[in-house]
Each structure stands twice: as structure tokens, then as C-alpha cells.
Amino acid sequence: TYLGYLAEGARTNLCLQSEDFATTWGASGTPVITTNTAIAPDGTTTADSIEDNAAGALEYVLQNVAVADDTVSRTFSVFIKKTSAATHFPGISMAYTGGTGVNGDVTVNTNTGVLINRTGFAPDSSSVTEFNNYWRITVTKANNGLLNTNLTLAILPAVNTDASGTWGNAATGTTVFWGAQLEAATFASSYIPTTTLAVARNADALTYPTTGWLNAATGTFFSNAYIPAVSATSRRLLEINDGTTNERIYNQINSANQANMAVTDGGVGQADFNTTNTVSAPATLKCAIA
Q: With contact defined as beta carbons under 8 Å apart, do 137 and 179 qualify?
């Protein structure tokens, strides 16, 4: 049974030791890190428990990543295990430093998955996605081009005892984390595990033979695509061709961010039409053409 195909662009996870918070990661205070305590979203026992046991201080793990003095957006993500009754609220933080610093911080209710931006330190965007017994939390923050050349990633097991946006140090507790990832992008892609080096994933490309099933005269295209952001560049959803641009049928999101279909036969365009409404983003688009 074919359930679908996930196609993503090239990405690099710049965060090292993405599944081992006792290695490479530094610490503020004396958080208790216990490795491999829980089954991770990939089915392996590689998720780590991190405990803040100091009622008068924030204890957490951190990692510094060198960045350019630029205005590039970066997205930090991590998987956080659900709880049945949230008694403390863990958080993640991105902090650009070196010049005029800027932060993007959120906490999460591990019971409901509700995110709370830190007052005065809100990210440009944030998201939560459910993965069985985990929430995947993401924060996106752009550097400000004001001499910041270091990015500190922080994972905090217990920030608050309530859902307020003010970060306090009185909370204590243990939270399970897995799969830390930092990408130079405005949204998170699928998880890329790392150890001692950053790991790059090539862009996905699927080519499938048409012999035995394609009827060139009639048929239906159906695409179900997640559109993370608007773009001035056309993005192909599905194309059938003979290996050239002379014989092809395709649908796409065009440069005007509209659903578009075109047919070329013998090198001559036969049809080219699109919706009049534009695609909003982020959004899931379903497009069918007979």
C-alpha cells in the first residue's frame, strides 16, 4: 500500500548531538541529564530526560552555533514528550548574541500542546505538531544584522508552573526531549539526526515510469501538498513527460501563488490555466484536474 511520498528541499541540521544532550551540549546550573530513558518518535530508546531540581534558578542545556552577521531566519525544533497532567512548563530558546542581541522563546503545555511566547522575547513564528506521544515544537527567529555572530540554543525542562508568558525560575521538574534541529529556514523540515558533525540532506526527487498505467488521452491529476510559504518561484506539484519539455502535463503553484495546470504537445502549448485566487501559506492545498 502506497501512503504517499514526502518530497522536501535540501536542508542541513546545524545542531550537533541531536539525540544525546549529555554530549557536546553545555549546561546552565546543574541540570540532571539521563540519557536513553524513553522511546523516541522513531521507535528507538534514545530520548533523554532533563531535570531542573533548583527552585531558585533556571537549569537547562545549551549549545552555541556560529552564525554570520546577517538577517537570515533560522528555525530551532525539538520533540518534547507529552504528559497527562502538566505540572511544569518546559521551553526552548534561540538567542542571537555578539552585538545587539535578539531572542525567540516559547514554553509549551505538555498536556495540551499549547505554546506560549515569552513576553518581550517572542519568536517571529512558532508551531507545534503532534507525533504520537510527543509534541514537535519549533521557533523561528531572524538575526537582526546588528553584529550578532553567535546563536545560543537552549532547552529548558521547567520554566513555569503556569501558562504565563513571564519566565520564572521557581519551577522544577523533569521533561523528556529528543531530536534537536537547527535549520537556516523559515520553517522546520523533517528530522535529520546528527552526532559530532552537522548533517545535510539532499533535495528529494522522485521519478516513476509510466509504462503500463498511463493513458495519455484521459486521466486525473490529484495533488495534496503542504505549502510552507509564498514564493516568487513556481513550484511543481506533479508532472508527466517523455523526458523532454516537448511532451508534458503538469500542475504546480505558479509564481503568482496560484494553482496552475499546463499541457505541451509537440513542443507547442495546448493549455495553460490557473485559479484566480492565490494560495495562502502556510496551508495544505488539494488540487484535482481531469
A: no
pTM: 0.82
Single-letter code of the amino acid located at 64: N
One-letter amino acid identity for 130? Answer: E
DSSP3 helix / strand / coil % (the chain, rounded to 5): 0, 45, 55
**Residue 281: C-alpha distances to residues 66, 96, 231 (Å):** 30, 27, 10
Give every residue of the chain whose pLDDT is below 70, as ranges.
1-3
SS3 of residue 37 by DSSP: strand
Q: How far apart are alpha carbons 251 and 60 in whole angstroms?
A: 47
DSSP code per residue over 69-89:
SS--EEEEEEEEE--SS-SSE
Distance CA 97, CA 69 (A): 10
